[in-house]
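ASSEMBLY PREDICTION REQUEST
Request ID: AP-0331
Submitted by: J.K., bench scientist
Number of chains: two
Total residues: 638
Priority: normal
Notes: Please return the full assembly, not individual chains.
Input sequences:
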Amino acid sequence: MTGIHPTRRDVLAALTIAAAGLGPASAAGAPTPVESRIVVGRWLLARGILADAPDALLRRLDAKVAAGFPAAVRADLGAGRIVSVEGWQLSDCEAIVCVLACHADGRVS
Amino acid sequence: MIVDAVELSDGVLLEADVCIVGGGPAGITAALELAKASRLKVLLVESGGFGIDNPTQDLYIGPNLGRNYPPLDEARLRMLGGSTNHWSGYCMKLTPADFEKRNWSPETGWPVSHEDLAPYYERALPYVEVETDDPYDADRWARQVGGELIEWSPEYFDNVASWTSPPTGFGIVYEDDLERAGNLTVLLHANLTEIETNETASEVTGLKISVIDGPEFRVRAKSYVLAQGGIEVARTLLATNKVASDGLGNGSDTVGRYFADHIAIRPALWVWPDFPGRKLLPYRKEHFLDNGGYWAIAASSDALRRSEPVGGFMFHFLPTGAGPGQNSFRALVGSAAKAEFPEYTSTHVMNVIRDLDGVPDAVAAALTGSGNVFDREWIAPWLTIECMPNPDSRVVLVDEKDRFGIPRAGLDWHLTEAEAHTFARATELMTRELGRLGYGRVWTTLTRDDFRTPDYVHKGKHAISTTRMSETGRTGVVDRNCRLHEVNNLYIASSSVFPTNSYVQPTFSIVAFAIRLADHLKKQHGAQP
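STATUS: Completed
Returned structure:
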């Protein structure tokens, strides 16, 4: 497995990057991961699937990611803590990151 | 020997120890087993011949009165070998939980156990021409094909071996055996038109048999076996109403009720796969070996069905080049041609997954490079489920009659919320397990709160449970030996006796039960064993 395996520090750093309008490089014309988080986060917020409560979400995320983000994803999915986004089955912690990305970017609605 | 009944004289009386009606897998197996190692005189009466002929096949015509179902004269074949002339050949065993009473479903529970049937499964293997050396050790055969089984949580899933028969066409493969058996006569083109009983309908005294545009004659035997399919056997009993007005053996009003089939959604989900090493190999296709095809199946565990109200289910993992959501997919393809994405969040969701869940670079490249995330191999599991017992799902007689004046069968098939729940729960559990293991990410609509069983679902064309086996005559039609509770000398060899339908295809179990019935009849008639 390769790719980004963010811990809480990474998540917070990523959110900061998002707020600054930066993010990992992507192919020309394709959305960056941070842009995608924001799109998905807004989708979740618009439907009230996750509460618009960034402090509470951050605490919830903090409790999940002690062993690393991929492990948190595994644990959420295995326990059925799943959020459906137009059929895609996301883990709760992925969904939280998306909502937090909206807040970090200031594009909540 | 095999005789065309058209050659018989009108009005003749044929006599036998055992007369079997129906030359499908159950009837042929029972006949061969009875004829083997005994001196019993056996008569096997088959409506059709060696091939399809329209006047005979038309006897199966009947209306669908409930849910969408294939035309009844196309779902079954009325010829020697019966529906094994068009079966897929999948052979799996019922599991122990299939036979047990499930606390959450009062109409489950068989009067026989998995252990009772086990030796007959062993004997059934050669009949369906599959591997006979410990075929249901799923792990052994996974290694044999160079793969490894997935470590599912045992409270949810079991790895189950499915074996694929050639598929054996019983009328073709066993024609020579039927011809050679000295104490067995097979009558072709011989249609059962009436079951004659004594004045209390507690004993069959004879059968009236007619040939289309040919002779009519009678059969008298000590024991009779109805080895028809699950729709036809119910029709036969319901139409035998001269003495018992509600139908023969129908004091419990269960003849024809509880009709069940296996239904499937293909696919139930799309998996963006990341199976490590050789984990997917045993599941992703049939592996054809010297003695049949092996396929590893992810099925509901017995522990799951014992612990929560969900029917049995199984997933066949099949690769596909088409991504999830056919409508969305088509829209995506159309938009891709114009170098733009539609209003659809999949790209973003998958970008999130790629970023946070660390999917392989090759996959990510497909996402962020070409832009078309669907242009890759997906796994699209087919989900087949058990339908729970439903007395309102039934075979009934209709006013229209066939050429012999026998009322036709109508099928009033229904599903309930139980089936929708099983589809949804199975998909949820597969999503959870793949996520827990890190083997793939899932797209599906089956876990939505508003999911309902679609109008169209795939059907196994397996007619099951219409003459259920039960401890007493109050709740079913036949006893643990497949004898009608109310009729001393009438037996049934058919999937119609299964009280529940499992997720498992029925033919292999039908053959096992037919061998068991033959053993029982040998004992009843003082023959071996």
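REVIEWER COMMENTS: The first strand of chain B starts at residue 2 and ends at 4.
SIGN-OFF: pending second reviewer
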